[in-house]
Amino acid sequence: MTAEIKTGEKMIVFMINGKEYAISVSQVKSIEKWQKPTRVPGVEPYIRGVINLRGVITPVLDLRKRLNLPEQEITEESRIIIISYRDAEVGWIVDEANDVITVHENEIESAPESQTKEADVWIKQIVKQENRLLNIIDAQAVLDKDSALSVPDQPYA
Prior knowledge:
Layout: E1 10-16, E2 19-24, E3 28-33, E4 47-53, E5 56-62, H1 63-66, E6 79-85, E7 88-94, E8 96-102, E9 108-110, H2 117-122, E10 123-129, E11 132-137, H3 139-143
Parallel strand pairs: 2-11, 5-7
Antiparallel strand pairs: 1-2, 1-8, 3-6, 4-5, 6-7, 9-10, 10-11
């Protein structure tokens, strides 16, 4: 699960805090409408709880909180993106998920160095398409316990 994307790769585009981000379709299991997670005591504040998704207990984290962005109310457009992570699934709460794009080699650039160390960890590349700039989010960096932004091995335990 690396952020390195290739030409011809399909990406899911989603919104957080008014900005567009993308993740490879290969990392996404599904996109679900909002359903309120059941809170689990003793977990990090960005972990909203767990949902029962087709018989699988799936931890759900608030990507806004995880990335230190301001909180926002859940709306009709809010979605939970189910990410494959190691041998499990993890849900990300995002503001919207409404587009699939195909990326071409001439549109891929390395992300510039950020002023915040956290952003350098989870954004490695940017896609420029027409009037759009999409940050390619690295699911492993966001979820990996060894990254600067850590999630426990068992975020739902």
